[in-house]
Design goal:
heterodimer, A: Rossmann fold, B: alpha+beta, Beta Polymerase, domain 2, 5-stranded mixed β-sheet, 40% helix
């Protein structure tokens, strides 16, 4: 890295830390939008809130191309197998944000056709409350996820750590 | 809205309908004529309603079931009929015994019966003989029982596995023969960028042309109607917001009007004017999402950003009034939750200046754009006759040349006092639906301008304290006010027994609430008549002969909102 006086400096770091730094700043969201929250997600990526400021604006509807699943909206029992399939199709590392009360807990739909929180089906890293959450709240959730990725605290990291521990034994 | 003389007296129903039908005719509390028919005579009666020129009920508005476990005839199927030409409305009720809940299907009379009958079958287990495809529609294949029956536990869930997912019968078999060149079955959705949420279409392709299609819905069935039965009347309002979440204000207004009609009260003039202003702004927001998403699917991304900017400004106003951006819960039965902020009129006037700029931008980019017109003109054409037969209302129907708008035909909230036009197109294609929505936004701005100029002063909620809470200053100082407060909080509103159908012009068309009350603190039954449910059932039939890219263009122009479609 070149300094103002012309000399160069070498920064040393761990490969994991550098990869985490790169990954957290280029999250590609897969909006699994089903309901009202999806409309607020659209607001978040629009000009006013501009999710691009946080490096997470490249919305991809293909699970093969994205690494951050945002479950935005109520998940019903009819939809449950689909959520599971889409999550399984995503390449690792992958992270999940449960956006809104329904994705977190089922919300106020304590009912015969509603999954009571998407963590019944897939592991969730960040829960964003609200019905629907404001775009600010969603952005806050994404920033939290970035911190977790940097510190190696996501579900993906835990799964990998378990795998390493099992291999060592 | 309601004629001075009941329709039943003006029309000799006994002469017009089949003479051997044992009819019981009554006048509903909502001004509609209610007939009770036994199921043997149902089809001839329905046919007469459609075919007799004096009755001319060309629009089947809704079919729904009601469960009365205490009665000898446990179930009731209710048909809501309307005549666009004559403006009158009828309700036909058919009581059914529990051991044989079977009625003949009305699909042969009105195609609109298709999905409404499937829904009644799914929710109540009522069988419609002669229906072409009677199977579950909102719940999934592994579901057991019928959830809207009164003895069904609201929280009883059934899990679905991947293997049980619905595949249409025709999609399982491969057609043979020489005529079949390169046929294949293609599944679109429910997780697909162009299905806007949660719709699924299975199509059979011959080369690139669609030869058969079937839609699967219910992926967002959140049990609104069951939830409404387990909550008090006021508590239902937040649930209504989440029906058509692109324009939540309109749903709340429609619900409040329906309950107010049953209670025999009206909201004060100021509340009505504010409801009109916010409803019309919500209509603009809804059309913005519809057109923005439709244009994105056709590759015109810029317009999506143009449409979302005015939405943010309208959100700002809604947030200032209600505290919420999207799901506002601002109306109450009898008025509004609280008064608008002091700078309300100024902010509305700012919006009136701000919004047209964006509409003009889109207009210049899109309306005469060669690519857009090639993709949309002549695509997804539906004739006025077919549109009415399928039960269409709203902008999609008006794009086919039928000038039916609830705000003009049956004014509510004082819409008769505002000067506005109902835009109508004649071609009935995707392009016409775009044009109608663009013009409707401008007409909505006209209504808002007049409403804000005439905005009256005064209270925003009724002073009937059996319905609305008395002000806090009174509660703390007057014994009687304290008692009212206590009773309302603990018991809720008591709506007198009876049923009523009330309808308003939602962003997608006629949004109806059919409400049955038993005198208790909770609704006995609320049936929502969602406009896009009727619109979407025609979609698979419209697809035949088109290509996959056309199906995306058509779907976007219909504005199917899953929250309202599936409830």
């Amino acid at each position: 890295m070149r300094q103002p006086d012309g000399s160069s400096t070498v920064l040393t770091t761990r490969l994991d830390t550098m990869l985490a730094w790169v990954r957290k700043n280029s999250l590609w969201p897969l909006p699994f939008g089903t309901a009202c929250c999806a409309i607020e997600f659209m607001s978040s990526v629009s000009a006013h809130y501009d999710l691009a400021r946080f490096g997470a604006e490249v919305v991809r509807f293909s699970p093969r191309q994205s690494d951050m699943m945002i479950v935005a909206g109520t998940i019903t029992d009819k939809m449950a197998p689909v959520v599971k399939t889409i999550y399984d199709q995503m390449a690792e590392p992958k992270w999940v944000i449960a956006m809104g009360a329904c994705a977190c807990t089922g919300g106020f739909y304590r009912a015969y056709h509603v999954v009571q929180g998407v963590d019944e089906l897939i592991p969730v890293d960040v829960y964003v409350p609200g019905c629907p959450p404001t775009p600010e709240a969603l952005i806050h959730g994404i920033l939290k996820l970035q911190e977790m990725i940097q510190r190696g605290e996501t579900n993906d990291d835990r799964v990998k750590a378990r795998g390493r521990a099992a291999a060592a034994r | 809205m309601t004629e001075s003389r009941p329709v039943a007296e003006q029309l000799p129903l006994a002469r017009l309908l089949p003479s051997d039908a044992k009819l019981a005719v009554a006048q509903g509390g909502d001004g509609h004529t209610v007939l009770t028919v036994d199921r043997e005579h149902l089809l001839p009666v329905l046919r007469a309603f459609k075919e007799r020129p004096e009755l001319a009920c060309d629009l089947l508005v809704d079919i729904c079931g009601v469960d009365y476990p205490g009665r000898e005839q446990r179930f009731e199927v209710v048909y809501h009929l309307a005549s666009l030409e004559r403006g009158h409305r009828f309700r036909v009720r058919v009581p059914l015994a529990e051991d044989s809940p079977t009625v003949p299907s009305a699909y042969e009379v009105w195609k609109a019966a298709d999905w409404f009958e499937r829904e009644a079958y799914d929710m109540f287990g009522i069988r419609f003989e002669g229906h072409p495809n009677l199977k579950r529609i909102l719940t999934h294949e592994a579901f057991q029982g019928h959830p809207l029956r009164k003895d069904y536990d609201p929280a009883r869930r059934w899990l679905l596995t991947d293997a049980e997912t619905m595949v249409p019968e025709w999609a399982k078999e491969t057609p043979g023969g020489d005529g079949q060149f390169e046929t294949q079955v293609l599944n679109l959705g429910p997780s697909h960028p162009a299905t806007h949420g949660t719709l699924r279409t299975v199509v059979r392709l011959d080369g690139e042309v669609i030869t058969q299609a079937e839609c699967e819905i219910g992926y967002l069935h959140r049990c609104f109607e069951k939830m409404a039965e387990t909550h008090e009347w006021q508590q239902v309002i937040p649930y209504t917001d989440r029906l058509n979440y692109c324009s939540s204000m309109i749903n709340g207004v429609g619900y409040a009007l329906a309950v107010e009609k049953m209670l025999g009260i009206t909201a004060p003039p100021r509340a009505q004017a504010v409801e009109v202003i916010l409803s019309e702004l919500s209509r603009i927001m809804d059309h913005c999402v519809c057109l923005g998403a439709n244009l994105v699917d056709l590759g015109a991304l810029t317009n999506f950003w143009y449409f979302f900017q005015p939405r943010e400004e309208i959100y700002g106003l809604l947030e200032a009034c209600a505290g919420g951006r999207l799901t506002v819960s601002y109306v109450r039965i009898g008025g509004l939750a609280h008064d608008v902020p002091e700078d309300f009129a100024a902010r509305v006037r700012y919006l009136l200046e701000y919004i047209p700029k964006f509409l003009d931008d889109v207009d210049r980019l899109v309306t005469s754009n060669r690519i857009f017109r090639d993709r949309t003109e002549g695509v997804g054409v539906i004739s006025a006759e077919d549109a009415v037969a399928w039960g269409w209302t709203g902008p999609c129907l008006r794009a086919s040349g039928v000038p039916y708008d609830v705000r003009k035909a049956h004014p509510y909230l004082g819409y008769e006092r505002y000067d506005f036009d109902v835009p109508v197109a004649s071609t009935g294609d995707t392009y016409a639906r775009y044009l109608v929505r663009m013009e409707e936004m401008r007409q909505s701005l006209r209504i808002v301008r007049q409403a804000v100029d005439m905005l009256p002063d005064g209270p925003v909620i009724t002073d009937n304290h059996h319905v609305a809470l008395p002000p806090k200053s009174k509660v703390y100082n007057e014994m009687e006010a304290l008692i009212w407060h206590f009773k309302l909080i603990f018991e809720g509103i008591r709506v007198p027994p009876g049923d009523a159908y009330s309808f308003t012009e939602g962003a997608n068309g006629e949004l109806g609430y059919y409400i049955v009350a038993d005198g208790g603190g909770k609704p006995y039954r609320i049936k929502v008549r969602p406009p896009c449910f009727a619109v979407f059932q025609a979609y698979p039939h419209m697809l035949v002969g088109h290509m996959i890219p056309d199906s995306i263009a058509i779907l976007g122009s219909l504005n199917i909102i899953a929250g309202e479609l599936d409830r």
